[in-house]
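Hi R.,

Quick one: here's the LysR family transcriptional regulator sequence you asked about.
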Amino acid sequence: MTNLNLRHFEAFAAIAAAGNFTRAAQALHVSQPALTVQIRQLEETIGVRLLDRNTRSVKLTRIGQQLSPVIQRLLREIDSVILNARELATGDRGSVSVTGLPSVCSTILPRIIAEFRQQQPGITVSLRDAVAQVVLAQVKNEEVDFGIGSFADAEPAIQVVPLFNDQMRVVFPPGSPLGKRRSIQLKQLITEPMILMSQQSSVRILVDRAFQSMGHFPVPAYEATYMSTAIGMVKAGLGITFLPTSAFEASELGGLGSRILKEPGLTRRIVAIQKSGRTLSPAATAFLRALIAGCKALRPAPRIRHVDSE
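And here's the predicted structure, written out as C-alpha cells:
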C-alpha cells in the first residue's frame, strides 16, 4: 500500500479544479504521467475510484465529490499552518512568557512592553511578578521563556544577560534627622529601628550582606513581605526601610524622605536569565532585545511606587 503524502491530495484537488489532467499537470508543474500515477496511488490506497475519465474530460465520482471539499479544506489548513510557522520563525507572531521582580514588573517593564507591542503587534507578552528565588525556579523549570531578577550567586544552569544596576535607598519618616543629611552612610543607620523585607527577598539578602561586611548583624524591628507594607510602616513612624531605586517612580512616597546609599555592596545587578542550553523562540528573542534596549535608555525616576516583596 502506498503511503499517501501531500502531493497526492494536491493532485486530486488540481484535477477537480481544472477538469482535466493536462491543465492540472501544468498548474502543478509536473508531467501528466506523474500526475496519473499519483491519482492511481490515491485511489488504490483509499480503495475507491475518485475520478471518471474519458478522452475529453475528467469528472468526479460521487465519492470524489464528497471528498473534494474535505481535501480542499485540509490543504487550506496546511497552508495556514505553514504560514503561521513561518511567521513564528521570523518573530512576527508568537507569545512570550516572562517572570520578574515586582519592582521591575511594576515600573520599567510596562513601558517596554507597550513600546514593543507597537512594533510587534503579533506577539503577546505574558508577565508574572515574583521574588528572586521564585523567578529562578520558574526559569529552571522552564515555566517561562526567561526571567528578570537579581542573584548574588552564580548558577551553572543559568545564562545571564546584564540589564542595569539598581542602587538601594534608605527611606525614612518625615521629620527624621536623616532628612537633614545630604548623604547617608550605612554605618549611620545601625541604631535606627529597621523595617526589613522577608529573608527570601533579594533586597533583604543585599542589605544583610552589606551590614555583615561591617561586622554588624541587623535585627529588624519589623519584617514585611510587601514593599507597600514596609512603606506604610515607615509612614507610621515605626522605623526606616531599604528599597531599590527601580521602585522609585509613582507618587506614593507621601512625604517620606529617601537617600541613595552609595556603598558598593548596596547595588543590585538586575539581569535577564534563561536556562542554559535552551534556545529562545524568535518572539522571545525579539522581546529580550527590546528589553535590553529599553533598560539602556533608563533614567532615574524621582518618586516611589508601591511594589511587592522581592
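The chain is about 40% helix and 20% strand.

Cheers,
M.
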